[in-house]
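Predict the 3D structure for this chain.
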Amino acid sequence: MIYGPFDLSDARVAEVAFWLWRQIEVNYDHIFLGISPDGSTFSGWQWDGTADWQEMRFGLEGYLGDSSVWVGWLFESDSTVQYEGPWVDDILIRKYIPGQVTIQGTFTYADRDGSSARGRFTKVYLYDQDPGGGDDLLAVGSTDSDGFFQFPTLTNWDEDGTDSDPNNRRLDVYLVFEADYEDSASARHRVTDLDGHTYVWT
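Done. Predicted structure below.
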């Protein structure tokens, strides 16, 4: 029983899951699940013996990025001892494709009169927060003369994540604004305190 090809070229996580019941002669008969990049050569797992219904789940990490993947089940048995065999049910093949995210906005602050002012020519750092620190710097930009900023569209996927649930692998983005902007080799805009440190907002 073979299904394919299916496309994992755009997937970040993929798996095959099914339920298996079996009553198979040990050592002589077996049920096999295989994964293939070409529909003819399969590698995977096999079982024999007797077991009640079990849910089987297998990740397809080795096939991510492949546009032609097959899965197959094979039951092999001789004719000497005959049991009821294997039953396979509720087959599920799924992949996770992360969405896209665009970070943009207008940076404002309260000036010395308490009025809202636009943060012109302010450096903007885009970070992905990681548990335990070591946050990833994704991009650096700046606000324009109206305080507006926009970063290129990103794939909403945390490459450093280890959680098996793809819903927990989204980016955790935050911004850092720094009053230090260079628009040329000779022109630099900086706002500092009395100790010379630039003002920073997170």
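The radius of gyration is 28 Å.
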